């Protein structure tokens, strides 16, 4: 809360430029989380976020130039709390634990709906596509890449295979998210065994 | 072309029920193809399809109750012509040929944009999600399933692994479509080797 007098409407807040008010920012993010959880991608609009947060649309666009930026902010805000990165020294075990945590996180937090929204939005605008591919993905696949590289260092797979396996892992997890089958945890183990190239009979 | 007199505006065409006029239907599909190619998912609307095709919105909705139905129709109309199903008796070879044809088809025909639209739309409405998962997917993964089952029959993999491998294949191909990396054909071979569980050094 500030004790400064409220600026006269004529001047508005153009003078503060892109400096963010943390309280207003939290309100915007909370409203965006609620809205994507309640209404999903089809019912998500910056207008409605602004209305619920009591914020100006211009302000929101200054902080989050596109819907994709807002979806990434929703996702990132909660992610690290709920998806621990296992380090057991066994690649299949690590991939299974991690994928299970991630799918549960997607199912039970606004992040899942936000990621579905981000992917959908990326099919509509080049800006969103670039945000997804060039900004979101490298960050969000770093953990899996680290686990796979660890496996390669232990000789469980070849280092040259890591990129392909990251793509297989992301593709599989997105596929289950996008067709609404994250509850189908039973498939995780056998698919992770295939990604890690552990034969069923071995 | 019909030689019947044009019905008076007051009666319109309500009496023909859901019977389709093939010429009008072709015009709608052609307009939908052009529009998704030109404007992508974000610029696609039934209003604009109706305007371009000179058709009524009500008629279009009668034929294609949702945008998802229209995307599936665009996709299906061209698919069989451009994606041959190889039968060489070598699983990796078959998967590589098929995936390469499919990616090229997605890149160079309205079908690719239509599939991106269908997946995006499925993130917004339960009807579109069901159309994608329950109607589109089983049809569109039948070829890959057949190739993998053929490999299993020849002893190249275990029959119990086919479902997981279909999911890995779909996930990987969708992922490349959704991030706009279909031109990246160089990755196909090594990823198909991993899906088929052929080790690089074997």
TrEMBL record, chains A, B:
DNA-binding region, residue range(s): 45-64
Residues in HTH tetR-type domain copies: 22-82
Keyword terms: DNA-binding, Transcription, Transcription regulation
Lineage, opening ranks: Bacteria, Pseudomonadati, Pseudomonadota, Alphaproteobacteria, Hyphomicrobiales
UniProt-recorded name of the protein: Transcriptional regulator
UniProt-listed InterPro entries: Homeodomain-like_sf (IPR009057), HTH-type_TetR-like_transc_reg (IPR050109), HTH_TetR (IPR001647), Tet_transcr_reg_TetR-rel_C_sf (IPR036271), TetR_C (IPR011075)
Lineage top rank: taxon: Bacteria
Any single Pfam family the record assigns to this protein: TetR_C_11
Region of interest (Disordered), residue spans: 1-21
GO MF annotation, one: transcription cis-regulatory region binding
């Amino acid at each position: 809360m500030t004790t400064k007098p409220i600026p006269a409407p004529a001047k508005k807040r153009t003078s503060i430029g892109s400096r963010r008010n943390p309280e207003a920012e939290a309100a915007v993010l909370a409203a965006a989380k609620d809205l994507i959880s309640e209404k999903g991608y089809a019912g998500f609009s910056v207008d409605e976020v602004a209305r619920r947060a009591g914020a100006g649309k211009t302000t929101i666009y200054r902080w989050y130039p596109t819907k994709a930026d807002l979806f990434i902010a929703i996702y990132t805000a909660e992610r690290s709390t709920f998806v621990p990165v296992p380090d057991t020294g066994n690649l299949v075990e690590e991939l299974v634990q991690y994928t299970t945590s991630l799918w549960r996180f997607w199912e039970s937090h606004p992040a899942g709906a936000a990621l579905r929204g981000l992917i959908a939005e990326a099919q509509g605008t080049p800006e969103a596509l670039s945000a997804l591919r060039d900004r979101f993905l490298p960050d969000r696949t770093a953990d899996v890449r680290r686990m796979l590289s660890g496996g390669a260092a232990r000789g469980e797979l070849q280092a040259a295979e890591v990129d392909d396996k990251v793509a297989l892992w992301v593709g599989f997890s997105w596929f289950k998210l996008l067709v609404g089958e994250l509850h189908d945890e039973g498939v995780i183990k056998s698919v992770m065994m295939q990604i890690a190239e552990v034969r069923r009979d071995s």
